[in-house]
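Fold Annotation — chain and its backbone

Fields — amino acid sequence, structure tokens

___
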Amino acid sequence: MGGACGYGNLFSTGYGTNTAALSSVLFNDGFGCGSCYQIRCTGASACYRGSPIITVTATNLCPPNWAQPSDNGGWCNPPRVHFDMSKPAFMKIADWHAGIVPVMYRRVPCPVRGGIRFLLQGNGYWLLAFVMNVGGGGDVARMWVKGSNTGWISMSQNWGASYQAFSRLGGQSLSFKIMSYTTSNTIIASDVAPSNWNVGLTYEATVNFH
């Protein structure tokens, strides 16, 4: 649950247990949030027969542990590529008693359903939007917000997959423009939140990356 991407309860936000925390080289200061990988265990006796493949979504950071060598405990130390998988996800590719196994991996499009979702937080002068259920590369490079009475306002990354704007946007319907980090493609989610939107609620767009 939770994690450095800001997705909160991974069941209610749609990510479930097929998730992983990424080492910092993949986490990329939060721009790796939401990216998806196919992973298969290879070259270890703990690997399940047939090397089954699982697709996981990046929802957290696996921080470095400089007190441990990177081949014995400090698995997430740069420049290592490491996936700290949830136990249910790990159990789909290998015997969990092994603790750590070598893997093959590749980036894949994210298998999401529905539109991009925005969890809104903040106050009358500050909007914070957590971006979830992003298709395609799954990641976000830049974001803009537009109230029904404003032009496009550039948002800055707050942390993980959250973006902020210091503007008075209450009482206005909200649209968002999102740029993919992987492809630089941009889509517009028009009028995602109605003029009576509230903090703490999640609003789903009708569009998504593919």
The longest strand covers residues 53-62. The chain has a mean pLDDT of 95. Residues 24-27 form the longest helix (4 residues). The chain has two helices and 13 strands.
